[in-house]
């Protein structure tokens, strides 16, 4: 019988030790790179910005995080094609009690990569502790805070009495019509027996977290002016652009009156009606831009309004109709909002 080659045995032993050491180092490295910050970064690196949010990848990642915590059930609902909603549940010891619902949205607003210091989906973590990513604050941090809180509580053996649900909804940034709006009207929502719900709020620059019992009402306002078109060399009253610019000036004065209250410390940002212009649309198109010697027959502007919970929506519409877009100047307006009247839950 042939005797084993001692050199072969030594080589095999060294190889085994090397592979074991490499595996241990890899496990240590993976553990070191699996912490609340890196888990947050991985979520931020998923592009869920409109107009093509990657909901599938986001939900898959969140399910993997829930599974890594353990004890969390998950269900994916779809009330509109291509608009999935993820529902996570941490069962409580008494399922007969009204549950707690924590909400966060999956989507984010578009990003302009060329305008960023770091790529918007790189989740770059700088030396001073900042993380640069689209959706970091609005509001992927909320979802990860929910999960990290549960992770910590479970690691300490805590079991909630009430069931805790986390809803991760699509399309919040474009109104929520295909996400949360349909979810709250569904049988699945009714079965949750929600007694208390918490959603995103205003960002806090410090360690204090404020809880709000109401929210401002978003209005998408379009103001349109029509007028007699004409040659650019002619001066005359009532052109579409002239009427629209007058309205823009009036809206700007109202905006400044509200903003002055905030700057003077007399009101919080959430206590005033905010108005922000978002677009202007007018002109006769040409191959290289616009025809510069023609006054257009139509002009339009868009504004993002946020009404306070105590603002009278009918009074706001009266102001728009009589001051911002009066018919006497051949103007009209359109308001789009999911909620026209808000009923506050007083604490």
Automatic annotation (TrEMBL):
Residue sites binding Zn(2+) 1 per the record: 105, 138, 200
A GO biological-process term: amino acid metabolic process
Entry GO terms, CC: cytoplasm
EC numbers on record: 3.5.1.14
Top enzyme category: hydrolase
Cofactor detail note: Binds 2 Zn(2+) ions per subunit.
Record-annotated active site: 107, 172
Superkingdom of origin organism: Eukaryota
Cofactor (UniProt): Zn(2+)
Binding positions for Zn(2+) 2 per the UniProt entry: 138, 173
Signal peptide positions (record): 1-27
Predominant place of localization: cytoplasm
Stretches assigned to the Peptidase M20 dimerisation domain: 221-322
Location(s) in or outside the cell: Cytoplasm
Protein name, entry field: N-acyl-aliphatic-L-amino acid amidohydrolase
């Amino acid at each position: 019988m042939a005797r084993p080659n001692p050199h072969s045995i030594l080589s095999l032993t060294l190889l085994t030790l090397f592979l074991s050491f490499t595996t241990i180092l890899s496990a240590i490295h993976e553990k070191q790179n699996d912490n609340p910050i890196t888990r947050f970064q991985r979520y931020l690196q998923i592009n869920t910005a409109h107009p093509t949010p990657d909901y599938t990848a986001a939900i898959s990642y969140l399910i993997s995080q829930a599974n890594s915590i353990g004890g969390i059930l998950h269900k994916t609902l779809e009330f509109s094609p291509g608009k999935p909603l993820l529902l996570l549940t941490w069962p409580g010891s008494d399922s007969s009690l009204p549950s707690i619902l924590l909400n966060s949205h999956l989507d984010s607003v578009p990003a302009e990569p060329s305008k960023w210091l770091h790529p918007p989906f790189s989740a770059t973590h700088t030396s001073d502790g900042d993380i640069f990513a689209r959706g970091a604050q609005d509001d992927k941090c909320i979802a990860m805070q929910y999960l990290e809180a549960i992770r910590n509580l479970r690691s300490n053996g805590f079991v909630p009495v009430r069931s805790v649900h986390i809803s991760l909804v699509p399309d919040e940034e474009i109104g929520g019509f295909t996400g949360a709006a349909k979810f709250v009207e569904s049988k699945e929502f009714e079965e949750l027996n929600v007694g208390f719900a918490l959603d995103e709020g205003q960002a806090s620059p410090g360690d204090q977290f404020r809880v709000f019992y109401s929210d401002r009402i978003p209005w998408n306002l379009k103001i349109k002016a029509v007028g007699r078109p004409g040659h650019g060399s002619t001066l005359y009253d009532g052109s579409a652009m002239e009427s629209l610019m007058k309205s823009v000036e009036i809206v700007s004065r109202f905006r400044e009156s509200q903003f002055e209250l905030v700057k003077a410390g007399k009101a919080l940002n959430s206590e005033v009606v905010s108005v922000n212009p978002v677009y202007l649309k007018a002109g006769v198109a040409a191959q290289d831009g616009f025809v510069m010697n023609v006054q257009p027959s139509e002009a339009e502007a868009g504004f993002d309004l946020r009404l306070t919970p105590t603002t009278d929506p009918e009074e706001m519409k009266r102001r728009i109709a009589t001051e911002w877009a009066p018919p006497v100047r051949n103007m009209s307006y359109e308001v789009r909002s999911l909620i026209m009247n808000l009923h506050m839950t007083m604490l």
